[in-house]
Amino acid sequence: MDCNRALELDPKFDKALYRRALALENIGLKASAVKDLDRCLALTQSVAAQALKEKLVNERDAEIIEVECVEKGDEIRSDSDFVEIVIDIPQDVKDDHTMPECTSLATVEDDVTYHFGVPTTHRQFFKDFNELKLLAPEKFASYFLAIPSSNYCSLFGELLECEMISLLFRGLVRLLQTQKCLESQVSNCLFSLSEIPRFKLLVMFFGEDEKRDLNIVCGFMPYSDQVDIKKRFLLEESPED
To answer: What is the CA radius of gyration of the chain?
Structure first.
């Protein structure tokens, strides 16, 4: 039973709070770890929890991020060929004030088309994600599937977040249900994701929504792929499997 599930059953389970704090520390989510430790210490006077909290607080206070200033020029441009991803936005949402500004915008009849290039740096990936997460989930999934799986580690290997995975799973469900992508594309994407070290930690924090969506995605896969993906993503086999 994972820590999230244990805390759903018993929010005052101090051991689960402490263990989840350790896991959060391991993947760099120190602020979230401190919150769990505060909850743990409110329930029990744990020396280990107090020591870990003091360590994390001191580390957070000492963190300084230095960014070297560079001028925009050839030295920060990618040598990779530009590949364009076209995403159509329905007319009924194009006037929404929450829609992000995009570098390329074209109007085709009643639709607005946003253009995203396949990212070659983690900075570009996160910029695109912050825009795409405001759109329908399948838009981000289409964008994600266009990224060569060999680039996953360099783009987001150390910075992958549960929010991204959750949006990806929801989008993959819609793409598969509307037959807008190939099962082999999705399988390759999921297999490659499972090889990222940070992802192996994130699966510990999958909630019921992520597990449900991933099970739906697996339903479109050949049986052998289903078994492998469920094993890699720590999904329990259902009685019907």
So the answer is: 21
